[in-house]
Write a structure and sequence with these properties.
Blueprint (H helix, E strand, L loop, with lengths): L2 H4 E2 L9 E6 L10 H7 L3 E6 L16 H11 L8 E6 L1 H15 L6 E5 L17 H11 L10 H19 L12 E7 L7 H5 L9 E6 L10 H18 L1
Parallel strand pairs: 2-3, 2-4, 4-5, 5-6, 6-7
Antiparallel strand pairs: 1-3
Helix pairs in contact: 3-4
Pfam families: Thioesterase (PF00975)
GO molecular function: hydrolase activity
Protein name: Surfactin synthase thioesterase subunit
């Protein structure tokens, strides 16, 4: 399995003391984090994950479970574990990040921190089945959340390319279940919008039940993609989080 297929460094920063691994939302791609990489480099080296089934990996089969995504990312990540690693995931990416952090912990690497954005905790279960909707229904759901990709869905050619990966990602996110099991040793920072239909504050705060490393929560005005309207503030919060972790160790 090729590391280059999965992991993208848009702004290599070999002098950086730490790394931030970024995991996209459902239907998202590594390029979503290009501005994040540019903003945080060279102090923090950003590595973005490219899931199969999109952009330059669009001919590969999509992965339809969170567990399999975490397994495959864990297998290609060892070359990037030579520096302290913080994991950031938005929406579905938060669930992948949590499972990935658990796998790394089981293999002897405790991530310095897990930043979960726009996602309820694994134990905050909902019965969601948007992945079973027809194409029109799934498109309406995507537009309701007002993600960046929603503006592209009026282009039929682009739609045909991205809809299979979106559906696979929705299936992975909506069928993911973990109530009990190992707890993280890493500190968890939860970022969320105050009007996110996919994650209430009570559901977000359940992340505290999944770690022994401490829990913090930051709330911003906005919905599921609140971070698109608060990029400087979110980046500052991530910088502070990574900095606080380095002082602890």
């Amino acid at each position: 399995m090729s590391t280059d297929l999965w992991l993208r460094r848009f702004h290599p920063a070999p002098q950086a003391a730490t790394r931030l691994l970024c995991l996209p939302h459902a239907g998202g791609s590594a390029s979503y984090f290009f501005p994040v990489s540019r903003a945080l480099s060279p102090r923090i080296e950003v590595v973005a994950v490219q899931y199969p089934g999109r952009q330059d990996r669009r001919l590969e089969p999509c992965v339809e479970t969170i567990a399999e995504l975490a397994d495959q990312i864990a297998d290609v990540l060892p070359p990037y574990l030579d520096k302290p690693l913080t994991v950031f995931g938005h929406s579905m990416g938060a669930s992948v990040g949590f499972e990935l952090a658990l796998r790394l912990q089981e293999r002897g690497t405790v991530v310095h921190g897990l930043v979960v954005s726009g996602r309820r905790a694994p134990s905050a279960l909902r019965d969601e089945r948007n992945h079973e909707l027809d194409d029109d229904g799934l498109i309406r759901e995507i537009k309701r959340l007002d993600g960046t990709e929603s503006q592209l869905l009026d282009d039929d050619e682009i739609l045909r390319m991205v809809l299979p990966s979106i559906r696979a990602d929705y299936k992975a996110a909506e069928t993911y279940r973990r109530v009990d099991g190992p707890r993280l040793k890493a500190r968890v920072l939860a970022l969320t919008g105050d009007d996110d239909p996919k994650a209430t504050l009570a559901e977000v705060d359940k992340w505290a039940d999944h770690t022994d490393g401490g829990y913090e929560r930051e709330v911003y005005p906005g919905g599921h993609f609140y971070l698109n309207s608060h990029v400087p503030a979110v980046l500052d919060r991530i910088r502070a989080h990574v900095g606080s972790l380095s002082t602890v160790d």
